[in-house]
Each structure stands twice: as structure tokens, then as C-alpha cells.
Design goal:
By secondary structure, the protein is an alpha/beta fold. It has 17 helices and 24 strands. The strands form 6 sheets. Strands 6-9-10-3-11-12 form a 6-stranded mixed beta sheet, sandwiched between helices. A 6-stranded mixed beta sheet has the order 18-21-22-15-23-24, with helices on both faces. Strands 2-1-4-5 form a 4-stranded antiparallel beta sheet, covered by helices on one side.
Length: 501
């Protein structure tokens, strides 16, 4: 039997109005990958924050390497050999990749008084090379995609030689190629005896790396199973308390005519001569590898970063979209992939976040209609099953998946004609995913045009009526729902036009 590395017994943690953990048990062995799963709000991230000293448990015991352990803050936990990669990235956006990888641990010279910048970048480059990444160590983090930021966060954790590494939704923004690269890193860490706690809603990944799985539901321990002795359906049933027979809801939508076009759109090297058409009631999937330009195209359509050339046509008429205000006025909504930095107001209440994009819609002669406003807030919370003690809860206190639901709710309160979903189920559990898919289908049935970006291939194939594939800022192909396969998408996503380079 592998050596016991960590034991957590009867852990309890309460927040105002919420019993986040209620007598949870968990253990980890050396050289194993132990998955921790549950629906949003089940207590997974809270348990890990107790382990790493971000929260202090109200009750319970923790044993590390066989000895009782009272962790005194995140730095203490890291110094003792426990590192965590949070679901919400914790990078310093205005500093370089190398600065972020070595933050508080920079190599120094001249009697430890001056940061050795050259050595730091050399070591950072070595670590990035080990991970198979071509990211420039001197690049400013704010300029990176979410997937690239996630890989930098992983590199940052790997710089510290840890006995325990906690990975909280590490693949939520990674494509299949990056996921395989991460799995290779995990296997190497497991071989050298590192215990890995793996939190993910992508349960289909577990067969490649997971040894055991522990299930939480509503803050309580449900079971621990050897992965080879259980099944995906059994784990899902334990998570949600019911059997899920379908992954994607059936669609019976009459797709209408083309009503929106983007023609020959250019923005730097990220979006190069891209043209797309969108039909009423259609779910148009955007697929591609990291850096393909999918998010950049979405942000250009929404004018978060305006196009340098090209034109937009709505209902047969050319329209001006030079700002996000103009985009919203034309009925375009954008659900950002990075909810923490581009989406939510984390210090404000759930209610304010939900209605933020439609304040004028709730006003009569400059006065807010509080009754109408509250009616929509309550409806959105029920519709998306947002787990919150009340609508006045601060959004930053919610789980990552529930934060994502709040962001989706915001655009449902505004009558939009085009909705761009950028990684709509990132950090959302398997039960709630079906609800989001059903919601997307409902919007399409109402005649709304949906553009959906996803790094999850089954999601793209299962939800899209038509799929546009991008590579290096260009459109490399288009596939119908009937013709699309994972192999065809990957071939187009890896395509290089030698003559056009």
C-alpha cells in the first residue's frame, strides 16, 4: 500500500448562511492522483482552501506525513510542500511570465540583494521548455490568452518542489493538445512520489490519470472509490443524487436565414481576413487550438478590441461597431471566458451583477423599477439553480461555477439578438452543464443567433449546428453538424496554409 501522505478527518466549515463543509473525510497517498468531485457548491474548493491555509476549519483534524498539522496561511503551506493551482488564476497581469513564475522566489545576486533577471528568465525558459510551451518568458501576462495564463500558473506551481499539488480545474481552458501535455507532466510528478489532488468537471479525463475518486455533495462526504472499480455513470449519480441519461439535450429548432455577417475582419495577427455568417436560431461553434484566434474574433465582434478593417452587416445593412456600447445597442452580448477579470464585479452582490447590463431596461423616467428588477433576479437564480444564500450575497464568495451562472444570467436579462458564449461551461459541473445546454437551445428556439466557443470537443460536436475552425487567426474550414468529427476538426485546427504564410 502506498504511504499515507495526507489525512483530513471530520472537516467542518461554515460561512454566514451556508454550511460549506459538514464532516468531510479525505486522504491522499504518495504517488497517486486522487480526484475530488462534486457539483458546484459541493465544497471541493473550500476543502482545498482549508488544506492550504486560506481558510481555517471550524472543526476537524489534518495529518500531514503522519503528524498533526495546523497550517498557518498559504505561504506556510507552500513552504511545507503543499501547492495549489486555483480555479481562478492568481497572476500579476502587468508583470512578465518569468516574474509571475518566480514571484517571491526570484533568484538573487550581490549578497541576495538584487534580482538576477537574466538567471530568472533562463530558468523560466527551461521550465516552459520542459512543459513543451513556446510562451515568451518576457511577455506581459495580460497579453496572454486564458489558456496560456493557465499554463503559466501551472509552471509557477511546478517551480516549488511540492509533496502535494492541488489542481483545481486545470484543464478548463485548455484544448486537447494542451491537456495531453498536462497529463504528461502529472504522470512524471506521480512517478517521483508527488501526491496530486485533481479537481475537474471533465470526468471523461479521469481514465487517463486518476487512481481514486472522492465524491462530495452539499458539503458532505459521499464516498471514496478506486477509479478502476467504479464507472462514470456511478460517479455522476453520486455527485448529483440522480441518474443523468443524456449529455446534450435534443434540439428541434427551425434555423432561419442569415441575419448577421462579419466580412473580411482584421485585427493585428490575431484575426486575419475572417468572414462568418450567422443564421437565426443557429448555434455556430468556433473550434481551434490555443492561440487560434477564436476569443480574439469574439472580442472583435463585440468591439472589446475594435476591428482594424472589415465590415459588419445586420439584417442586410452595414452597421458600425466601434465600441461595446454600440455592440450592445445592436443586440450583441458577449459572455467572457475569463469571468474574474472581464466579466464579474466580484465585490458586488449577485443582484447587481445580474442586472448590470440592463439598467436602462429597468428604469422609468430615470427611476429604477425595483419590483421588475427583483422579479428578473429571482427568475434567473431559479432558472440557473444558482446556489447562494440570497441575492445579496457577494459574488466573490460563490463557487466558480455559480459565478459563471451569474454571468450568464446577466445577458438573459437583456433582450439580445446575438449571444457569444466563450467557454460557457468552464468550471460548471456535469449536472449544471445540461441546464446551460438546454438554456442555449431555448435561446436558439427563440430566434437568437448563438456563437459558441469551446475547448471541449464533445461540447462543440454535441451543441453546434455548424462549426467554423480557426488556426493562427484565420478560418481554415467549415463543417456541418452531420459532417463534423473530432478527426476533421483537429485536421483543420492544425492546418497551415504554406502559400499564405
Amino acid at each position: 500500500m502506498q504511504d499515507a501522505l495526507l489525512t483530513m478527518k471530520n472537516i467542518k466549515k461554515r460561512f454566514p448562511g451556508v454550511q460549506a463543509l459538514d464532516g468531510v473525510d479525505f486522504d491522499l497517498r504518495r504517488g497517486e492522483v486522487h480526484a475530488l468531485v462534486g457539483e458546484n457548491g459541493a465544497g471541493k474548493s473550500t476543502l482545498m482552501k482549508v488544506l492550504t491555509g486560506i481558510y481555517k476549519a471550524d472543526e476537524g483534524e489534518i495529518f500531514f506525513r503522519g503528524e498533526s498539522w495546523a497550517v498557518d496561511g498559504p505561504r506556510h503551506a507552500q513552504d511545507k510542500g503543499v501547492s495549489i493551482i486555483h480555479q481562478e488564476l492568481n497572476l500579476l497581469p502587468d508583470l512578465s511570465v518569468a516574474d509571475n513564475i518566480f514571484v517571491t522566489r526570484e533568484p538573487r545576486s550581490f549578497m541576495n540583494t538584487v534580482i538576477d533577471d537574466r538567471k530568472m528568465h533562463r530558468l523560466a525558459r527551461q521550465k516552459l521548455d520542459e512543459m513543451g510551451l513556446s510562451i515568451d518568458s518576457r511577455a506581459t501576462v495580460s497579453k496572454l490568452s486564458v489558456a496560456e495564463k493557465q499554463m503559466v500558473e501551472i509552471a509557477k506551481a511546478l517551480i516549488v518542489e511540492s509533496d502535494i499539488l492541488v489542481l483545481d480545474e486545470p484543464t478548463s481552458s485548455l484544448t486537447d493538445v494542451e491537456v495531453k501535455r498536462l497529463f504528461g507532466i502529472i504522470r512524471r510528478l506521480r512517478e517521483r512520489g508527488t501526491g496530486i489532488i485533481y479537481i475537474s468537471h471533465r470526468l471523461e479525463e479521469f481514465e487517463h490519470i486518476v487512481d481514486r475518486v472522492t465524491v462530495l455533495r452539499d458539503g458532505k462526504f459521499v464516498a471514496t472509490k478506486n477509479w478502476k472499480e467504479t464507472s462514470l455513470d456511478e460517479v455522476i449519480c453520486m455527485m448529483v443524487g440522480r441518474t443523468l441519461t443524456e449529455k446534450f439535450p435534443a434540439r428541434d429548432v427551425l434555423i432561419g436565414e442569415v441575419f448577421f455577417e462579419a466580412e473580411h475582419i482584421n485585427r493585428g495577427s490575431s484575426v486575419r481576413d475572417v468572414s462568418i455568417k450567422l443564421r437565426r436560431g443557429e448555434v455556430l461553434g468556433l473550434a481551434g487550438l490555443m492561440g487560434a484566434g477564436r476569443t480574439e474574433l469574439a472580442r472583435t465582434i463585440f468591439s472589446a478590441e475594435p476591428a482594424e478593417s472589415g465590415k459588419f452587416i445586420l439584417d442586410g445593412n452595414e452597421i458600425s461597431i466601434r465600441s461595446t456600447v454600440e455592440a450592445i445597442r445592436h443586440g450583441i452580448a458577449y459572455l467572457s471566458e475569463d469571468r474574474k477579470f472581464d466579466g464579474l464585479f466580484l465585490d458586488l452582490e449577485v443582484s447587481k451583477n445580474i442586472v448590470m447590463a440592463n439598467l436602462t431596461g429597468y428604469a422609468k423616467m430615470g427611476v429604477m423599477d425595483d419590483r421588475k428588477c427583483q422579479k428578473d433576479i429571482d427568475a434567473r437564480i431559479r432558472e440557473l439553480r444558482i446556489k447562494t444564500p440570497s441575492c445579496e450575497q457577494i459574488v466573490g464568495n460563490l463557487s466558480g461555477g455559480n459565478q459563471q451562472k451569474v454571468l450568464i444570467s446577466r445577458w438573459l436579462c437583456r433582450k439580445s439578438r446575438i449571444m457569444i458564449f466563450d467557454e460557457p461551461t468552464r468550471g460548471i459541473d456535469v449536472g449544471a452543464k445540461f441546464e446551460v445546454y438546454s438554456l442555449i437551445n431555448k435561446l436558439a428556439a427563440e430566434g437568437i443567433g448563438i456563437i459558441m466557443i469551446s475547448s471541449e470537443m464533445p461540447e462543440v460536436l454535441g451543441m453546434s449546428d455548424r462549426i467554423i475552425v480557426m488556426h493562427d487567426g484565420k478560418v481554415t474550414g467549415e463543417l456541418s453538424r452531420e459532417d463534423a468529427t473530432q478527426e476533421k476538426i483537429m485536421a483543420l485546427a492544425s492546418y497551415t496554409d504554406k502559400e499564405g504564410e
